[in-house]
Amino acid sequence: MGTAGYGQQYPGTFGYFLRSTQTYPGTAGRTQGCTDPGGKLIDRVEAETMEQNQEFHSILEVNRKSLEDGERRALIWGLAGGNRQVPVITATLPVDRSCQYPKESFPHFNGLCESIIVMNGINAPKVVECLGSDGCKYRQLAKSGNDDLRQDAVMEQFFGLVNTLLQDHSDTRKRRLKIRTYKVVPFTPSAGVLEWVDGTIPLGEYLIGSTRNGGAHGRYRKTDWPFLACRDHMIIGKDKRKAFQKVCENFRPVMHLFFLERFSRPADWFEKRLAYSRSVAASSMVGYIVGLGDRHSMNILIDQATAEVVHIDLGVAFEQGLTLKTPERVPFRLTSDIVDGMGVTGVEGVFRRCCEETLSVMRTNKEALLTIIEVFIHDPLYKWALSPLKALQRQKESDDDDTSDVDSPDDENEGNKDAARALMRVKQKLDGYEEGEMRSIQGQVQQLIQYSMDSERLSQMYPG
């Protein structure tokens, strides 16, 4: 049963490694030599994925080029031609130990819908709908330009491992603790496709609206300050702590109303609020362990049907948030609106207990988690460390979108120079060390919650 037997399962993975030599000729060549000395497996996989690469290339063309409507339509319809048996790359594919995959065992790629939505952003990612052979439409986000999706893909794999561990432990299994994941398929170091998480809305869009002057705050707190006024007050305030306290007095939380709006039956309301608290707890602990940063309100989605949170844009990890222009000083996002959604008990009760259970499972299985992280941060194909320019672009304080993301010649050499430090910090967290002192699970959770809600730390952070 060889690796090539699972070619249908990992078309994006194989395709990415075949194309990775374009950017990392030395490292990719050494990798191929170590895993396949004779080159036979690589040749076989390359032949089997040739048609898949054509599909990927066409999707990239749809995303990258400024095409006229006729040209785009012709390209999209051209994707459906031929007799290809390419799986939908963002669909969940079954794994058969016998490597037997009949045609009907997974949805095949039948082309793209004509309509394409262009999203906001410097790189203008496109939302496309992939037509599957099962008659379903699979919405995908195609990104290219300055976005490197490889770290997002590895982080999602790490979240998947944590979910397996949580499922294996009785206390976390009965609480249904898990991290919501989605498919990420990098095509090249600068392009790829993500699974669109249907039925979700960014927390920021619900709270303050897409234009930052409405949302739930505008509907229910008409006498409160608008978001932009709060932001301006924080910028001009000399005493950040006093300015932050003033903002809190005039920008009261409304997240609890999300559940009242969508779940009218008391049983549903209670169940969804419980699911929300559990989801926030699990994602907070896992995010803390890997040092996940850039957790502003537009990078956290909430499922409108289940109330679970979904974290997106995972490009800032291993405490790289400390290198941002305005350093991130809290372990995870636990602002007043996040806490407000947990009900009158706030962080006490369900949230705290679920944090402790999640952290307990991770500390028990720290060797497995450290192995995955060590492989990732030492992988020469990945550049997880933020360059100064990328760190600056993460927090743009102006509306100037003309700055391009150009790597300096030393970026490749400097990319993993902090790998040992990052791995050591993750190990310290899993061992319970905080500020040089070892904590119990309860003590560590208490300190993390305290730091995340500390007004002094929150007042020093980037408003948003």
Q: Which descriptors would you attach to this protein?
A:
3-stranded antiparallel sheet; globular; alpha+beta; Phosphatidylinositol 3-kinase Catalytic Subunit, Chain A, Domain 5
In terms of topology, how is this protein built?
Layout: H1 11-19, H2 25-35, H3 40-48, H4 50-64, H5 69-79, E1 109-112, E2 117-118, E3 126-132, E4 137-144, H6 150-168, H7 170-174, E5 184-188, E6 191-195, E7 200-202, H8 203-208, H9 215-220, H10 227-236, H11 240-250, H12 256-262, H13 266-289, E8 300-303, E9 309-311, H14 336-340, H15 350-364, H16 366-377, H17 388-394, H18 411-414, H19 419-431, E10 433-434, E11 437-438, H20 441-452, H21 455-459
Antiparallel strand pairs: 1-3, 2-3, 3-4, 4-6, 5-6, 7-8, 8-9, 10-11
Helix pairs in contact: 4-5, 6-16, 10-11, 13-15, 15-20, 16-19
Domain PI3K/PI4K catalytic: 112-424
Pfam families: FATC, PI3_PI4_kinase
EC number: 2.7.11.1
Can you describe what's shown?
It is an enzyme of class 2 (transferase). It is found in: Nucleus. Residues 437-464 form the FATC domain. Residues 112-424 form the PI3K/PI4K catalytic domain. Its EC number is 2.7.11.1. It contains 21 helices and eleven strands. It is an alpha+beta fold and 464 residues long. It has two domains: 3-144, no CATH class; 200-459, Orthogonal Bundle (Phosphatidylinositol 3-kinase Catalytic Subunit, Chain A, Domain 5). The strands form three sheets. Strands 1, 2, 3, 4, 5 and 6 form a six-stranded antiparallel beta sheet that branches. The chain has a three-stranded antiparallel beta sheet with strand order 7-8-9. It has a two-stranded antiparallel ribbon with strand order 10-11. Helix 10 packs antiparallel against helix 11 (240-250). The protein is globular, with a radius of gyration of 23 Å. The model is unreliable at 24-34 and 397-407 (pLDDT under 50).
